[in-house]
C-alpha cells in the first residue's frame, strides 16, 4: 500500500466523464475519434458529443460547468475535472456557463482561435472556420491570428478580452504573397502605367 499525504490528495482533482442530456431531438456520442456515432434519446456519458439539425443538448461537467449545444454542433472533451476543462469545438454554436467561483476555468479550441474563461456565460459560434465570441455575463478571452471586434473597427489583434456587449471574431490567417513574387498585390490587378 502506498500512503498519499492528505494535503496532496485534497489538492488533486480527478478526471471525470461529462454527461450529455437531450433537450430536443437526439444526441450522438462516440467512444473515440475513429468510432461510429451512436444515437441516444436520453443521456449518455462520453467525451464526444454531436447534435444534428433537429437536436439540442446540454453537457454537464464537474465543477458545475454546463454547455448547451445548438443544432449541428460537435464537441470533443479533451480533459475534464473540477479543476478545469478543455474542449475542442470544430463546428456549431455552444453556450457555456462557468460558475462565478472561478475555480473551474474553461479552455475551448476552435479552428480559428482559443477561448478562455474563468467565470460567467458566453456563446461561441463556429462556422466556415471562423469563430465568434459573445459574452453574456463575466468575461472571456479570444485569441487567434486575426481577431477583430465591431467595437474596435479596423483593428486586427492576436487577443481580446470580451465583456457583455462586446462581440469578438477570429478567422484563419489570410494567404500571403508568394516569396518568389514580391510585387503581388491584394487586388490582383495589373498596373499598365
Question: What secondary-structure arrangement, pairings included, does this model have?
Answer:
Blueprint: H1 6-11, E1 19-24, E2 27-30, E3 38-40, E4 43-45, E5 48-50, E6 56-60, E7 66-69, E8 74-81, E9 84-98, E10 106-110, E11 113-127, E12 130-149, E13 152-162, E14 167-171
Structural commentary:
The chain has 1 helix and 14 strands, in the order αββββββββββββββ. Strands 1, 2, 3, 4, 5, 6, 7, 8, 9, 10, 11, 12, 13 and 14 form a 14-stranded mixed sheet that branches. It is globular and about 45 Å long. The chain is mainly beta. It starts with 5 loop residues before the first helix and ends in a 22-residue tail after the last strand.
Which features would summarize this protein structure in a list?
single chain; mainly beta; globular; 193 residues; 14-stranded mixed sheet; disordered N terminus
